[in-house]
Design a protein that fits this description.
Number of helices: 4
Distance between the termini: 35 Å
Shape: globular
Helix content: 25-40%
Number of domains: 1
Length: 184
Amino acid sequence: MSAIDFNQQAIAFAQETQKASFLSEVQQAGLDQFKALPFPTRKTEDWKYTSLYALTKQDYNRAIQTSELAADETLFVIPDLDAHKLVFVNGVFNESLSDFSEQDGLSITTFSQASNDQQAAISGSLGKIADTTRNLFTALNNAQVNDGVYVSVAKKRSGGKANSNCSYNDCSETSLLGFFSLFL
C-alpha cells in the first residue's frame, strides 16, 4: 500500500461514517481538508523526525463499533480513587461500565443523546480547536467523528470529583482504523 492507497482507504472510511446532522459540517470540512492535504513525508517540516512509512504498509479494517467488553471488569478499577469513571471500549462509550453521577453544574451525555442546546455547544467547539489546515490526521479525525461524550462543567463550580477516563480495545484485528470518542 502506498500513501495514495492509505488516503483512498481513509476517504472511503470517512464517507461510510454515520452522519449526524449537527456534525455533518465538521465531517465534510474534515474530509475536504484531508483530501487537500498531502501525505506527510520526512520532507514535511513537522514530520521530518517521524517516518509514517509503516502506515502505508498494511491494510486497515474498520474498528469494531461495540462497547461490549469480554474481559475482567477489574481491569478498570483503581482502588480508592474517588472519581467519575468514564469507560470506552473500542472507542465507544460504555455507560454500564462507567460510574458517574450528575451533580449541580456537571453534565455528561453522549453526542447522540445530546439536547438541542448541547448539540449547539458541541458543533460550536468541535473542529475549531486543533488546526486541520496543516495536519492531515486532525482533518481525518474530524471527517470520521460520529459520536462522543460531552462533559459540561458550569463556571465557578468548585469541589466535586475528578474524571477518570478509561479506554480499552478488545478486537481480533491488528490493523484498525478507528477513532476514539471526543470530550469537550
